[in-house]
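User: Good morning. I'm curious how zinc ion would be positioned relative to this chain. Could you predict the structure with it bound?
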Amino acid sequence: MVVLTSKSTNTKMVNKISFLIAMLILFSNCQKGPHEKYDLLITNATILNVHNGEVSSGMMIGISGDVIRMVEKMKNLKKYNSSNKFDAENKFVMPGLWDMHVHFRGGDSLINENKNLLPLFLSYGITSVRDAGGDMTLSVMNWKDEINDGTLVGPNIFTSGPKLDGPKPAWVGSLVVETNEDIIKAMDSLESLGVDYVKMYDGSLSKEAFYGIVKEASKRNLKTTGHMPLAANILEAAQLGLDGSEHVFYALKSCSILPDSIFQVNNGRGVLGAIAENYEPNKAREVFEELGNNDFYITPTLEVMNVLSDVAEKDHSQDSLLSFIGNGIISTYQGRVESAKKAAARGGKNIYMDMLALSSKYIPAMDESGIKIIAGSDSGAFNSYCYPGASLINELSLMVKSGLSPQQALKTSVINGPLFFDLEDFYGGIEIGKMSDIIVLEENPFEDIRNLNTVSKVIKNGILYEAGEFRSTLKALKLKNLE
Ligand SMILES: [Zn+2]
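Assistant: Good morning! Here's the predicted structure, ligand included:
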């Protein structure tokens, strides 16, 4: 089995892995003979190429261990030998989805409930997740290792470990960074944990500390993304080496004609409404182009804004998806409902609705200017009713609603996910030498993105799973816990 370690963002390490995989393929090709043997042979598949939109029917795929060894047009099956066969006639086969913004969090008492969600991601065809910071890093690192060596069933996990924030961090478990010394200490600690990238948060992080983290992380070859202090400038940060931005606010801020002085004194979300109102399309074009030229990633997280935009008035108590979520996590959902109700009672503007409208409007322009849009749901404890799994499908549907084609939307997950971690040689296609993280669908998502809801089978670590079985197990588990 090929194990991509937690240090997989390190280019040298990735090159070494590429070399090993190349050798492995070369070796296996040398052994090709009249009776090749695979662990799993998929026949009659219609393969969807998410990269270029091609649809190839009548294909067969040979998998050994967790690597794709053969992709060919159907021919004499007698030539091929396999321990397990699956006939994918009238079905669509594509690489697994990546949810690039999830959270494992909620404190020690919720560690098990978070762990129980891992198969739920798989049941929706999500074979990789990027954890965007939480408070159970050691457990997440353990799950990651166990999934890699096949002792735990779940998606590949890439994690930032704890978030970096200022002296009054917004989230429990964050590392506090104020001075240069703090930056070095925090980076040493993240490196010793073996995190995959660095996530920053703008609870109280200063502009100086933010820039300092970006510079130090670049020096150490660690990717950076996150929220950013509103006093900071996204173009300046991108030039210093910032790789990406979570949510669209920060890019949109630079497209507003509001004077910078407003952001120097007001570092809160209070100004987000003003950003929406003072938006300048021409400025936006320039900003997007420059970010696009800087190889920049933006994770819009539309679905969480969509859910939060009406969370004060919508009754979610009968949502069928609640049956997969532990009661401890469900109880964390109340916080955002209460604050939304208070905001509505004060008669404040619905910022989430404004931001969703604006973000959606500019997604095609960002995509055209070369910014790499990444699909991330922001599901996790405290993010009310943004359900793990289903929320990524909704995210991709919202991207299509905003003007991307279904194939372009799928690229934000299947192609841009691995690209963020420089892992495009190993993921994102049904090709020889790539990892066999594969999903089987009853209907074609290139035709209608909602067809992602028809994922029926998932291949992970070389094993073929029924997607529906994950969900029945989870439901049963919850009922058992309620007894
Ligand atoms: Zn988040």
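The first helix runs from residue 11 to 30. The chain has two domains: 11-95+429-467, 97-420.
Let me know if you'd like a different ligand tried.
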